[in-house]
Amino acid sequence: MAEFATLLDKPEEELDFKMRAMKVKKAINEKMFNKAGGFYTDGADTDHGSIHANMLPLAFDVVPEAYKRSVADYIKTRGMGCSVYGAQFLMEALYNAGASDYALELMTATNDRSWYNMIKVGSTISMEAWDMRYKPNSDWNHAWGAAPANIIPRGLWGIQPKTPGFGIVIIHPQMANLKNSSITVPTIKGQIKGDYKRINARLTQYSIELPANMVGEFNAGFSAEDLVTLNGESVNLSFGTIRLNSGVNEIEVRINSF
Question: What domains are there in the chain, each with its CATH number?
């Protein structure tokens, strides 16, 4: 709502909504975070912590940086403990916390609470529930259940607009243990194409092609000690990201920070 107020040039409403958001965030962290356990409880008067009480704060940036790892670790103990609809927010929470290994594990799972199970059941589109035994009257036509369709480009590949209309794109891949991956993302300015190869534990390669009138900010989670080249030239990592230009950008990341 604060963003809407900004766009509508209503500064007083913008400030009001920002203050409300800060107040709610402060209250959640003061009253619902169990510091001893490192997770959020379902309310102020209970010690129980559901997956929902933890994935939603992570998904909506309520969790302070110092708590993100412990909250993600707690979520890992709950499995796919939410509905098909809730899985969207679970996936966003995990990528927001940098828990890409577990996120990929859930997306590629083959148990009865997985997208693979929908294929195994016989559906050709995402279902309302993970399996018919969880909701016998569920239908086989729920597009909002296809979370990986947006999580793979936005989370695994980390391709998101920094400015409206993709004038600047952020690319922050979290490939986990994938050996290779390719992607094409349509935007109003044209297609973003990406190709990834994991040569070995220390060396990875990316090829990112951006359309005309678009620049990018690339960060594959490297540290200042790593050796990164862009189109064969060494890159200064002091800014934390690499600037990509329109056209093909060949990136090589050699990890030296083990």
Answer: 32-150 (no CATH), 158-254 (2.60.420.10)
The Cβ of residue 214 has, within 10 Å, a number of other Cβ atoms equal to: 22
How far, CA to CA in Å, does 129 sit from each of 92, 99, 151, 223? 19, 25, 19, 41
Long-range contacts of 54-61 (CB under 8 A, 24+ apart): 54/78, 54/93, 55/82, 55/86, 55/89, 55/90, 55/93, 55/94, 56/89, 56/93, 57/28, 57/93, 58/92, 58/93, 58/94, 58/96, 58/97, 59/89, 59/90, 59/92, 59/93, 59/96, 61/96
Numbers of helices and strands, H then E, in the chain: 8, 12
| pLDDT classification of 80: cutoffs 50, 70, 90 | very high
**Residue 39 is encoded by which pair of tokens?**
């997770």
pLDDT tens digit sequence for 134-152:
999 998 989 889 999 999 9
Structure pTM?
0.92
Structure-block tokens of residue 207: 């090829």
pLDDT digits (tens, 9 = 90+) for 188-211: 999 999 999 999 999 999 999 999
- Residue 57 has φ and ψ, to the nearest 5°, of -60, -35
Largest distance between two CA atoms of the chain = 59
Distance CA 74, CA 66 (A): 14
CA distances from 186 to 75, 125, 160, 195 (A): 32, 21, 11, 15
